[in-house]
Amino acid sequence: MTASLVDRLGAVGVAIIALTDNAEEAERLRKIGVASALTGVASTELSDRISDAVAQLAGSVRPAIRSTPADTGVALVCETVEPQPDPEGQGTGRLIAVWGPAGSPGRTTVAVNIAGELAADGSDVLLVDADTYGASVAAVLGLLDESAGLAQACRLADQGQLDADALRRVAATVATASGTFRVLTGITRADRWTELRAAALAIVLERARQIADVVVVDTGFCLEADEELSFDTMAPRRNAATLRPLELADTVYAVGAADPVGVPRMVRALAELEAAVPQASPIVVMNKVRSSSVGRAPERQLRDAWERYGPAFGLKSFLPHDPSAADAALLAGSLLLEAAPESVLRHAIRALVCAPAQRKRKSSVFSSTPRRRSNG
Ligand SMILES: Nc1ncnc2c1ncn2[C@@H]1O[C@H](COP(=O)(O)OP(=O)(O)OP(=O)(O)O)[C@@H](O)[C@H]1O
Ligand SMILES: [Mg+2]
After folding, report:
1. In the chain, which residues have pLDDT < 50?
2. Which one in 244, 294, 309, 366 has a CA-CA gap of 20 to 30 Å to 272?
3. Residue 66: which domain range?
4. CA proximity to 282, closest of 97, 118, 93
5. Is the CB–ligand 1 distance for residue 105 below 6 Å?
6. Residues 259-269: pLDDT tens digits?
7. What number does the ligand 1 atom closest to the CA of 131 have?
């Protein structure tokens, strides 16, 4: 009995009540939203429990595993009442999702550096690589991590065994000269996407909010809902790992490439985002802004082009094309704040989430102090 199975059964109208005399098992079941009773329970009490389970299915399940459009089941659960509180307590951490269309617009660069800047400012940060098409956070941070921390966390969540300590254990720690943050690394092969199911991922994100001030999620690009193609309501959803964080996020950054291919692609992608996750109100960021791809005064050119397309969301921010800073960070397997602390790109990304940085001279501590990394 896993969180995913409970979620899928709930989606097709099956309420679950477990019989067990094992207190540990009852606790585990509670964590995945299943009520239990002792095996020798009196029949009247059992019938009450069954009624409760049915009533709860019709009304609410725990918010962390409630079906939403990332899954098919939502259409089948029509009545809603107040959800029950999460027994572990609600997390208060802010969830930031970084998303953007296909074409490598810079989602990972933005996500990783947002996480680093917030950590440098003293926030407790957990970075999550939920890109099921091309996970790259571990490589970008120079982590020799093949353990797919997010898949491990999802497995534990699915089994009702993900508490705050377990989540801390499966997250890698990245220590920079200016702050430490945790990372749940992504899946190592795209065909492992089935390991990141919506119900389990929602529990992971809920736990993440409990252990971190800010949770930053690097998502994939694809928002396609595949349920219409599938008659199997038990099947996992290909893009749940992107849709679920977008549904749950407090803030969504939509990152697009500032060139003649990237701009119209971004406009179309935002329309898809609005249809798939109507509650998301993305902050639109144009990345790799340069005059050589859009003409002189590139920000004005981009705004003019944007107006012509007339998308629902305005352009909020421009990140400069800064290949030497981006490459220096890639080469060093580190953050811009370490590899290129004075770069325009570092300061522009920092300005998305932090108060303006104090400019440091070339002899910055960021560039001179080596970084330590460890797991756990
Ligand atoms: N502002 C920038 N200036 C120059 N190069 C950049 C900038 N932003 C990102 N890059 C570079 O562009 C490439 C793609 O960036 P990144 O991996 O962040 O994109 P992505 O959207 O996450 O791509 P993917 O589709 O692989 O997930 C990387 O080589 C990165 O260093
Ligand atoms: Mg990426």
Report:
1. 61-69, 71-85, 360-376
2. 294
3. 3-76
4. 97
5. yes
6. 999 999 999 99
7. 27
